[in-house]
Amino acid sequence: MTRHIIATTEMPSFVESLRKNNVIAVSDGSGKDRIGSAAAVLHCTHTGQRIKATTMVQGNIQDQSSHRSELVGILMIVKIASMLHTEFDLTGTLITFGLDNDEARKTVIDEYHPSVKKPDYDIICDIQKRFASLPIKFNSRWIEGHQDKTNTDYDTMDIWTLLNIEMDIDAGVHRETHKHDNTNNIPLPNERTTVWLDNKKLAHFDKHELYSAVHGRAYSHPTDKRSWSCLQFWQIRETLSDQALTNIHWHVLGKAFRKYPNGKQRWLVKHETGQCGVERMHLRRKYRDHSQCPRCGQTDETTQHIIQCQATLATTEWNIHITLLSNWLTKYRTNTFLLTAILQRLQEWRNSSPKKGISSPR
Ligand SMILES: [Zn+2]
Questions:
Q1: Is the full-model pTM beyond 0.70?
Q2: How many whole angstroms from 127 Cα to the centroid of ligand 1?
Q3: Ligand 1 centre and the CA of 310: distance in Å?
Q4: pLDDT digits (tens, 9 = 90+) for 21-48
Q5: How far is ligand 1, taken at its centre, from the CA of residue 60, in Å?
Q6: C-beta atoms surrounding 107 within 10 Å
Q7: How many Å lie between the centroid of ligand 1 and the Cα of residue 292?
Q8: pLDDT digits (tens, 9 = 90+) for 262-274
Q9: Taking Cα atoms as reference points, which of 142, 10, 8, 12 lies closest to residue 74?
């Protein structure tokens, strides 16, 4: 027997059943073809009174999964409980919820906060924070799903199984009706930080997606810098030739970079991009009224100038480091011609002097 609550006058008796712990909750999600929907019910086992809800699952297409749909089912249960609590005060009430996806169930009841990299981080966090803030106790149980696929004798099934089958059907019906609805991801109330990419809110901190968005965009507009890849941007800014780009051993540089401590990595990125406290930036940020190098007095001190500065102090520092580099190259038995060539080119670059021929055995 089921009776949907349609009249507000029935609410007090439903809430009374909740307080007597006679109400159970069941949800189910469906995530076919990357379009997700979910259904949930709070059902009184004594009177058959119930509150039911169905919804589409908000999320970017790459985030849609049955796992996400199942989580949204749980979220609906918690939201309904929360709304009822605001209205009627359910302090001390116990609600047991059941679903057929044990991974989703275990994830939300985990005492630990999920990693920001975990898929569906946004919804998991929202549910966990709602659990923690409500004075209602939530228990959970796993329900063996899709039992009606092998056995259609409903008399042999318990209430949990029957409600799970009903929610499965409801989620499917809702999906069919609303499959063309807009399901863009939305910020959730308990999210402290959200990461957006191309006007889409990410469901978790997707490092690979962010990385490829920065370094390998498949499209670009010649005048819109925001659509350029990172490489394209730097090639234009530093007027690098295509050949120069292919000659850079990115993999080895990346490996060396990651060996630096975090602080030094941050410093190096700022230095290489010119965005640190050199006089050019000080002037631009209005910390100074000039941009002169404090050592040689040249205007427009950049990070590159720091290395190329011809002041005595800077030259001494340069020579010390060149000697260290030379010793290191010798220690690792670098070919003498290669060693000489590296040091010669570095010196020519520092002094902005013309490149001379490289002596080689050939
Ligand atoms: Zn200088």
A1: no
A2: 57
A3: 6
A4: 999 999 999 888 889 999 999 999 999 9
A5: 51
A6: 21
A7: 8
A8: 999 999 999 999 9
A9: 142
